[in-house]
Every structure is written in C-alpha cells, then in structure tokens.
C-alpha cells in the first residue's frame, strides 16, 4: 500500500499541541466555574488539586499562552506560504450536505480537493472560536494586572463571551471527532500522526487536489504499478 | 522571596511595557488616583460602642442596606449532589460576623489584657482577586475604588470568597439568577458584601459607617490623604498599620497600638476556643499574600506569545523555502 504525505511535520505538531492545549484548557477552565469541589472531583484520589483555583488557574494560563503562540504561528505560517486550502469556499455548505448524504446512503461521493467541504467549514468554526477565546483570554489577563482598570461592561461581556466560546469549542471538537464515525473519513486519521495517507485514497477521493494526485501517481508508479489499475478497486 | 516593593516595581515595569504595546480604547488606562477613596480605621479610637446594643457602624450599615438583603425562595434546595446549602435568612439579626444580612461587624479580642475592637468588612483591594477571578464578570469597581457585586448576575458559586485573601463575601442560597438558569446543577445563590456605599461616594457623601461612628474611628477620604494620615498617626502613637501591603494592597488602612500578629492570633484562638468554623470572621494576618501577584507575568506572556508565534512562523517558512530552493538548484 503506497502512501503520500498529506500533512507536514509543522502541521502535525501544531495540531497535536493545539489539541492537547485545548483539552487541558477545557479541564482547567471548567474548574474556574466553580464545580469540581461541588461535584467532589477533588475527593477522587489524585485529583485533590482540581479544586485549588491557584493550581488550575496557573495551568490554564500556561496552556493559554501555548495556544496563543501555536495558533498565531499556524495562521502566520500558512499566510506566509500562501496556503489557504483549509479555508471555506463558496458552496461548501451545499457540498457538505451532498457529501454527508452520499456517505450515509453509500452513493458515490462528489470529488474533493485537499480538504472535504465539511472539513473546511469545521476548520473555520473551530478556528473562529479559538480566535474568540484567545482575544477574550488576553483581555482577561490584561484586566488582572494592578493599575489597569477595564470598563466594568467590558469585563462582564468578555467573561460571558469567553464562557460561550467554551461551549462552542466543545461543540466544534465533538463535531470534529464525530466525523470519524464515518468509515470513509478514517483514512484521514493517519495524516495527523504519521503525516501520510493512502495514495489511492487521495487519487480517488481528493482528485481535485492536483499536487496530491500527482504525488500519489508518482508513488504508485515508483512501485512499478499502474496508478489507474492499482486504484480501480480501492474503496475508502 | 522577592520583597513587596520589588514585586511592585516589576508589576509597574510590566505595565509600562504594556502601555507601549496597547492603546486601550474601551478601557480606562488606569484609575484616576485622585478619584480613589480609601478609609482609615483607627483601632485606638474604636470602643465597639460598648454602651449600645449594636455598634453604630453596624446599625448604620444595616439601615442603609436592608433593602438589598436577599429574600430567598423557599423551600431552599441543597447544592446537588451535596446535601447542604448556605442559609443565613433565619439569622438576620446576627451581628457577630459577616453574613449576607450583615456586611460589617465589630470583632472584639483581648490582647495583653486590653480589649480591642475591630470593625471588619471588605477591604476594597487595589487589585481585587474576587473581581479578577469571578468567572461571570459580575464584580465591578466604582470610579472611587469601591468593589461591589452585581446581585442580578451573580451565580453564587462562592469562588470570590475562596480567592479573597480574607474570605469576605458571604452566600445566601435560594436567590439570584441560578434559580432561573441551573437551579439544580450549578450556582448556589448570591454573594453579598460591603459595597463601600459606592452610591454615596459617587455623590460626594460619606459612607454610612463613617457618618454613624461616634468616635470618628472610621474616616473615608482621598486615598492619598488617608495613607498620609494613617502613616503620621502610626508614627505619633508608635502603632502598626494593616492593609497597605497585605493582600497586595487595599483601600482600607487599620491602625493599632498592638502588632497585628497578636490581634490575628487572638482572633484565631477565639475561633478555636469556641469551635467556630462558620465563615464570616476574617483573619488579620500580616502575612496575607497577593493572589494576583503573577498577573503581570501572565499578561506579558500572553502578549509575547503572538509575537513569538509570528517570528517562529517566519523562521520556519524561511528555512523551508531555502530548503526548497536548494533542492531545485541541486
């Protein structure tokens, strides 16, 4: 089975660090609500620290700073390289519906570019709310400093938008992971770990991704096989 | 350990750097120091109104604020899955501690055979951890520096009490917005505490406790003036001050002829002797930390992180482009 690189080392690191930071931020942020003491999580062996605001807040800030750095790196990196494949395109909503319907009914899917239309929409949704969390988080950290007195309404709305963002991001992450309920999408999973995905998968499902298809054909040819014949029976 | 003055220097150095990076539009860059009102509580004058049934400051506070006291919806329900809830509604006349129905009280202790009376209430911190860490942004600060809780949006999670260096705010169950939003799962009432009579301060009047004090033991005024008065008086009587640096600095300065270590020990001993574990009787430890002392570092880190992100991306793209070019050349 021939494989090609779909995600660069940089993308995989960004994805991994972002995911880990977000899960840690979910946990430590939820601890600020405050609920862990009420729900006795602190009484579970090894979790006594969860009800200590000093501890959870420290880690919340720590991973917040990491997320800000990685998030900005990601945006700047792709901006500098002029890579905008993951951004939504006109018609993505309709195309997502067609694609999901095809996956549910087992009918033939419309061909895709490097990213599926619903992937682009999901990316935009999660990226938007991460951006909201970063901006409101920075405002909150500025507000904490002695001598900086922010307007009371700004403090109030920043807190509420940050809390709303928390729930929206949970929806985003659940949707993101939920995509793998569809067997067809599972071929994409190794892309975020090893960076490589099946060459025939790319050739068949992402045939509008020119560079990917070219790489896929090259890889198959290199093994002495005919790309067309090799991928004829491939089912994702 | 870094001493307090150095810590403050670093904080302000951080602030100055931030001012260069930010031009806040929706924000007041800093509170006008001339508008800040502070208070001086002279324990050498306070006699706890021994001849009265209820100390004048406590009564004045109750008279002024009784309309703001909670009327809980009965029956009160426990904070599920726990079996308890906080209820002071049957103890509205209690004046021996801070409760949702009593925002100031006079602590009496005996130190070296002498009775000392200490009016206690919110210290109105310079950088209040309750305000900064409330997850719902429902604690505000007035133009004069009075810290207040908005009862309409407080969820009563009591985090403010836990992060307050003196555990001042007190909770009443069965009231507030949590009853409409999450009556069973989250929230627990509304938190109450002294609001510094912010409404009176706003119109240039003195807070109720000062107006009622027959001994002039409580004085509100320009904070800069208050600090000068307190320091001068402390020098004059060879006394001790409390509140200027404790908890990171507050808007309330106490003067006592005896060290506050002794007063604090007496409070703790009294509580221990009486088996008093209920909230509302704050300590007076001179070693009260500033819960917000790391705030400047975190703010700086969160402002530097985006710059570092862009720099790392530029470097990474430069290196990969150079690599691609070398590959082509070869």
Give an account of the 3D structure.
The complex is a heterodimer of chains A (236) and B (330). Helices cover 61% and strands 3% of the residues of chain A. Chain A is mainly α and 236 residues long. In chain A, helix 4 packs antiparallel against helix 5 and helix 6 packs across helix 7. The longest helix of chain A is centred in the N-terminal third of the chain and has 28 residues. Chain A is elongated. Chain A starts with a strand and ends with a helix. The model of chain A has no long low-confidence stretch (mean pLDDT 94). Chain B is α+β, with helices and mostly antiparallel strands. In chain B, 35% of the residues lie in helices and 14% in strands. Chain B contains ten helices and eleven strands. In chain B, the strands form four sheets. Chain B has a four-stranded mixed β-sheet, with helices on one face. A two-stranded antiparallel sheet of chain B has the order 3-4. In chain B, helix 1 crosses helix 10. Chains A and B meet through helix 2, helix 4, strand 2 and helix 5 of A and helix 1, strand 1, helix 3, helix 4 and helix 10 of B.
Largest sheet: spatial strand order of chain A:
1-3
Low-confidence stretches of chain A: none
CATH architecture of chain B: 2-Layer Sandwich
* Percent in helix of chain B: 25-40%
* CATH fold naming of chain A: Fumarate Reductase Cytochrome B subunit
Q: SSE string of chain B, helix = H, strand = E?
A: HEEHEEHEEHEHEHHEHEEHH
The CATH architecture of chain A comes to Up-down Bundle
CATH class of chain B: Alpha Beta
| CATH domain fold name of chain B | Alpha-Beta Plaits
Number of strands of chain A: 3
Number of helices of chain A: 8
Fraction of helical residues of chain A: 55-70%
Largest sheet of chain A: 2 strands, antiparallel
Strand count, sense and closure of the main sheet of chain B?
Answer: 4 strands, mixed
What structural class do the secondary elements of chain A suggest?
Answer: mainly alpha
Poorly predicted residue ranges of chain B: 1-30
